[in-house]
Sequence to fold (389 residues):
Amino acid sequence: MKSYLTHLECAWCHQTYDADQLINLCPDCGKPLLARYDIDSARQTFSRASLGGRPANLWRYGEMLPVRDPAYRYTLNEGYTPLIKLDRLGQALGLTNLYAKDESLNPTASFKARGLVMAVSRAAELGAKAIAIPTAGNAGSAMAAYAARAGLPAHIYTPQDVPSIFVAEMKALGAQVTLVDGLITDCARYVREGVEEGHWFDVSTLKEPYRVEGKKTMGYELAEHFDGELPDVVIYPTGGGTGIIGMWKAFDEMEQLGWISADRPRMISVQSAGCAPIVRAYEQGVELAEPWQNAKTIADGLRVPAAVGDFLILRAVRDSGGTAIAVPDEETSAALHEIGPAEGLFVAPEAAATLAALRQLVADGLVQRDERIVLFFTGSGLKYSHLIH
Fold:
């Protein structure tokens, strides 16, 4: 599988750059860079039919992924996660086509594996000697795993109140872990200082071009699940928002490839009421989100006061006719305790927040009974056992 990567384009100012260099944000405006591909050439050989017999992981979409040399396509068999029909939860809500995309079956038990396998693989291909990341937990674990596969030193900065199981996992995978008295934005400052001093390459959310490329494979998989169609509604827990941005990008690519029609799901961004900068910006009708002060939530992955890709999240939500919803922690906790007995799935609080949001959508009449709705269960609850009582 040849990669058809051609160049990088700034998502804000549209300046273009050579893809074959280690680079973080746009040098001109400081906004995220996105990978672009020669879709006309890819269309000649890369079809849905061509996927038959390919490995059941995200590298099956290699033509539209950025790693050129197959030797750098590191893998722990991430991606190609199941779509599960939620019959009991659907019946309780009066819905006939409710599904979950179960990302807990990825390596290190979360969707973060998708983005970090791509970021680490591409960084290694481009000559990075060490990598670093600020994290609320799962991203650090995934980065540590793939850094180990690539043989790269991994440096992780995480809030000191992160559940201890995350720290144990990162250390067991060989990472150097530093606990920080503060939030993920404070951790990011330490990573940035290390970049400026030449110690490592930063693989933070959307501060390099390729995590989003791994996350976009969730969109390609949705098209496979539904035989060339897409669901009507996608409900996604949003911290840094790479998943929403990535899937929205995938839908555009697949339409250009001739895989799908112009129809798009309504994209629903879900945040915690204790940290909801995207929801506030959506309600205010602005394109950039102000940082959230005093962020606090039981869902560590949603405790992201400022997202560098805020405008891309908001564009996807608005362009799709979707919405942004904040849910209180008590409703997230109730949903977490509901999902397990109903469907046999022990999910992370970020995942449970999608069910809490769906209840609001149903109550407000914003989803129809027979629409195909996909909740993204982004991680396992096993790392959040302290929330079960």
